[in-house]
């Protein structure tokens, strides 16, 4: 088989598989950088774009560019079964119920709502649907380059409308009613949920449901028009 045929076969497999691969999703907006000055220039460009459209921008660094952007709970569940929102909700309920039995801090005001409890659990290494982001692009750069020198890292810039940034901890579990393309940002430190590491990293959490898994879904985003 010719090399060209091999490439075509791989591409056809990727777009006909049940779930689009992270690399095929990201390539719509990928940009490769090799120097810190290039990274800083791109960060400034993204900030300028966000400011011009009254958007907020948050950052995340991952040490392997091939990894998908998934929560720790989604990663763990997908390794053993088919993933869907109903399953995540069910496991999340079980985790919250069990945690309430043995975490004394949950008795106090900052941790009365499920989202605050999920942040507490995430901080202590329990899988949740929350995904860590940061206000500070330098923090994201650090996490993207701290190890695995033989593999490229990846930095994500998440652009959201200001109305999607939660100013306080919501009651209940409203994220279960979000659309599959809807993402909210929640800043726990701003709502008195303070952990030293989270505060030092200027951390926030992205929260939502699972994204669409349609095979022909592209990386198009209306905020990038």
Features:
14% strand; alpha+beta; 8 helices; 4-stranded mixed sheet
Number of strands: 6
Strand numbers in spatial order across the main sheet: 2-6-5-4
N-to-C CA distance? 40 Å
Q: Helix and strand string, N-terminal first?
A: HHHEHHHEHEEEHE
Structural class: alpha+beta
The tally of helices reads: 8
Total domain modules: 1
User: How much strand?
Assistant: 5-15%
Main beta-sheet strand count, sense and barrel state:
4 strands, mixed
Return residue spans where pLDDT drops below 50 for at least 5 consecutive residues: 1-17, 215-220
Rg (CA only): 19 Å
Inertia-based shape: globular
Percent of residues in helical segments?
A: 25-40%
Counting copies of identical and different chains, the oligomeric state is single chain
The overall average pLDDT, rounded, is 84
Describe the structure.
This protein is of the alpha+beta class and 225 residues long. The chain has one domain. The chain has helices spanning 3-16, 22-26, 36-52, 72-78, 85-102, 114-123, 137-145, 196-200, and strands at residues 55-62, 131-134, 154-161, 165-166, 183-186, 203-208. The strands form 2 sheets. Strands 2-6-5-4 form a 4-stranded mixed sheet. The longest helix is centred in the middle third of the chain and has 18 residues, at 85-102. The termini are far apart.
């Amino acid at each position: 088989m010719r090399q060209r045929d091999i490439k075509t076969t791989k591409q056809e497999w990727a777009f006909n598989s049940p779930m689009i691969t992270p690399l095929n999703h990201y390539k719509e907006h990928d940009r490769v950088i090799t120097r810190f000055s290039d990274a800083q220039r791109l960060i400034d460009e993204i900030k300028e774009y966000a400011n011009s459209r009254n958007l907020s921008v948050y950052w995340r660094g991952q040490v392997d560019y091939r990894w998908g952007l998934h929560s720790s709970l989604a990663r763990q569940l997908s390794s053993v079964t088919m993933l869907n929102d109903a399953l995540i909700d069910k496991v999340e309920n079980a985790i919250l119920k069990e945690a309430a039995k043995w975490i004394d801090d949950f008795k106090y005001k900052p941790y009365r709502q499920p989202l605050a409890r999920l942040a507490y659990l995430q901080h202590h290494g329990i899988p949740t649907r929350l995904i860590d982001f940061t206000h500070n692009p330098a923090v994201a750069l650090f996490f993207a380059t701290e190890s695995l020198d033989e593999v490229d890292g990846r930095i994500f810039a998440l652009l959201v409308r200001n109305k999607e940034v939660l100013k306080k901890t919501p009651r209940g579990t409203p994220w279960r009613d979000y659309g599959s393309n809807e993402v909210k940002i929640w800043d726990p430190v701003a709502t008195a949920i303070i952990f030293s590491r989270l505060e030092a990293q200027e951390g926030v959490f992205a929260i939502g449901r699972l994204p669409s898994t349609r095979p022909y879904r592209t990386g198009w985003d209306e905020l990038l028009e």
